[in-house]
Amino acid sequence: MAETVTLGFVPLVDCAVPVVARELGFAAAEGIDLVLEREAGWAAVRDKLAFGLLDAAHILAPLPLALHLGLGGIPAVPMAVPMALGLGGNAITVSLPLFERMSEADPDAMAGPRAGSARALKAVIEADRTAGRPPLSFATVFPFSSHTYELRAWLAGAGIDPDRDVNLGVVAPARMVESLASGWIDGYCVGEPWNLRAVQRGIGAVVASKWDIRPDAPEKVLGLRAAWVDQDPARTVALVRALVKAAAWADAAENRPALAQMLAAPDYVGTFPEVIAMALTGRPVLQPGGEPVALDTHVFFRDRATEPLPERAQWLVEQMLRWDRTGLTAEGAKAALAAVWRPELWAAAVG
Amino acid sequence: MGDRDLSILVIDGDPDRAAVVERGLVEAGWVRVSVIGPSVNLLARIQALAPDVVIIDLENPDRDTLEQMFQVSRAVQRPICMFVDHSDDHMIHAAIEAGVSAYVVDGLKQARIKPIVETAISRFNAFDRLRRERDEAQAKLADRKLVERAKGLLMKNRGLTEEDAYALMRKTAMKQNRKLSDIAQSVITAFEMEF
């Protein structure tokens, strides 16, 4: 009798691992009937996971830490992260008008490497300030997200103060492109397909990828309630084993076209199949009318991409301490990381 | 009766449900209720309305935007937090299952908010029930239309009387253990293929 595990996900290219685990039978082979539930946003994922409507979730890496610590206006729920669901996936996109202004303001910075493109933004911001124009607005997908920390790091790296020099807000992933098109925001940091879609639609350009900013920062992880793990640790180990096998399959170059097709199905990402395919084949076009560049945006298995390595999560913790005004202390953050990140569960599944 | 003066904002992507929730709150005596649908400038609109309580469907992606109002920052004038009654586990589950989430301005007493959230939960549930009943009624109507059309085709093309056409489909449905509407659909498909 297979055990049912309900896993919530947000429709993004990096939800690939659970989708493959279900579609190709890796979960069934471990005795798990993996039921996948699509969610429209991260607050819904968090609440359903916290209150037991979901057993598991494809979730932003900092969110289980925040939930465990009771940050952000919700009560604390002890959490467990027994594996990561991949590396990479995010990028920073700016509107085409802003891209043109940046290219004009500092052509050297825009010529590459991409991590330095924020220097051109700095020049635009200074020109705006001199002219008395209102600050530019940028969005990420959630307050507690690697996106927020990556965008802040990219800005701060060029001497831009994310809290004073720009407006920072939050917009759900599927709404990013329309918000950019309507001019409500000037740029954003989001996962695929929402960067390459803006390029395809001709309204935005990718100016930096996660690989340019913090390549080894955790992205999405498998989030579980600690109580759910304790209830039946063997179930968690079986789930992790299935997902790690799925990750190995999803990472192989020869499987990427089939993976793209799988993700484009209505139950999963369900939109823009050609953009999903471009995100997975390592040759994306980053500017409207541009040439494809070599950029393997998503890594699911190589480089220890499934391991919940505390040393990689350390960067997230440092960013939470640096930027979030939550009253979190260094000791509190360290204890939370030690409690939530569970490499021993990963080892039990893989070893 | 100061509690009825709290200003309540209902945010819902479904305007019909928003109207049901709004009416429920107003009928229960809260007079300051406003409703907004999806909008790109959500935060600015909330700041302008300055509600004490926000009722929003749990699945709404606008909730992610609301989350930034948890943080005390320059951009946020009135910090809010999620309404969770720690003493009442049953209510949390009732809210989540009904698909309701609530945000309140920092510092408001739980007892003042609870009846608002309870009203919202009962309205969400009532709306769900109505929609289910409507969907079922529509499905029944669609089935009946299929049967009528299949009957007409059999009468015209096979020279059967209305009763015989109906009896034939009914007998086939019973023999094959299928729904009458499925048989009707097959009949329609078969005749359409001949043309």
UniProtKB/TrEMBL annotation, chain A:
Cellular component, GO annotation:
endomembrane system
Recorded GO molecular functions are: ATP binding
Is Cell inner membrane among this UniProt entry's keywords?
yes
Q: According to its UniProt record, where is this protein located?
A: Endomembrane system
Q: Which SUPFAM superfamilies match?
A: Periplasmic binding protein-like II
Query: Do you know which InterPro entries this protein is assigned to?
Result: NrtA/CpmA_ABC-bd_dom
Q: Which UniProt keywords apply?
A: ATP-binding, Cell inner membrane, Cell membrane, Membrane, Nucleotide-binding, Transport
Any matching Pfam family: NMT1_2
- Give the CDD domains listed for this entry: PBP2_NrtA_CpmA_like
Q: What is this protein called?
A: NitT/TauT family transport system ATP-binding protein/nitrate/nitrite transport system substrate-binding protein
TrEMBL record, chain B:
* Keywords annotated in UniProt: Phosphoprotein
Q: Which residues form the ANTAR domain?
A: 127-188
- Protein's recorded name: Response regulator receiver and ANTAR domain protein
Which superkingdom?
Bacteria
* InterPro entries (alphabetical): ANTAR, CheY-like_superfamily, Sig_transdc_resp-reg_antiterm, Sig_transdc_resp-reg_receiver, WH-like_DNA-bd_sf
The Response regulatory domain is annotated at 7-121
What processes does the entry annotate via GO biological process terms?
phosphorelay signal transduction system
Q: Would the keyword Phosphoprotein be found if you checked this record's keyword annotation?
A: yes
Q: Which residues carry this modification: 4-aspartylphosphate?
A: D57
Example GO molecular function: RNA binding
Q: Matching SMART domains, A to Z?
A: ANTAR, REC
State the species of origin: Caenispirillum bisanense
